[in-house]
Write a structure and sequence with these properties.
alpha/beta; 2 domains
Length: 313
Amino acid sequence: MNPIIENIYNQSKLNYKKIVLTEGDDNRIIEAVKIIRDQKIADVIVLGKNCDIDPESSPLLDQFTQTLFDLRKEKGLTIDEANKLAKNPLYFGTLMVHLGLADGMVSGAKSTTAETFKPALQIIKASSTSKMISSFFIMETNNSNLGEQGILFFSDCGLNINPSAEELSEIAIETAKSFNNLAQKTPRIAMLSFSTNGSAKGEMVDKVKLATDLVKQKNPNLIVEGEMQGDAALVPDICDSKFSGNNLHGQANILIFPDLNSGNIAYKLVQRIANAKAYGPLSQGIKKPINDLSRGCSIEDIVTTVAITSVQN
């Protein structure tokens, strides 16, 4: 096991947070729960018929219905609609987290990313120290020379479609916080583009250059460079030849993508071509962690994502 992932497992056992899983009818979830409970990784609550809690018949349903109605009535939600939504495990689990009955939630084995995050965006919202909610992936590669002992954080590959320069700077800063929290190493950020240090021109390049400048202004202590291409971000010789005087030197452990298109394509290609493990999309900038699984996730993916959720601040 990668030493950074191993440390996350160790921290989760010390934290022993209460994590709700919304898809108790999936066999992979059932098997993962056995491992999580056996290894005492987290105190898991499984939603579904014949599970720990059945949202449709739970004694919490009336309270959750009223809470959801109070939160969304100004958006036109009726009490009947709130009741129907509260029976949905994704909303039920999110309400558990919102009301402090769980510390975090993991879903997505059978649900889309949009379905998983929609209740969180409506109910839990951004933390007081964040300007926006975004997502990141932990990419575990087999090349220990890449990133941090083979670990790279990719962002935003799951939520924000076309962030502005200001939003891109916030995504970078939030990902640095996530890296500090989970990897417990110094973040080194590459702001990615199809251009390196002005080798190409255009609006998309300008956005990344401005975002990089904003990150440096907001947090001068961060190691961040851009705009740069992927090879410059990861290969020292290429970085130093293309970008003289840079402070990253091809040793990025965080890759910030200019839009969801490039980020989502990149993580899936790295996952499949390089046989890397991809954990996420994981939320950041949110009051309490709500994390997603790929619908093609393995049992190990579920266990690791629960461990990550337990360690997130």
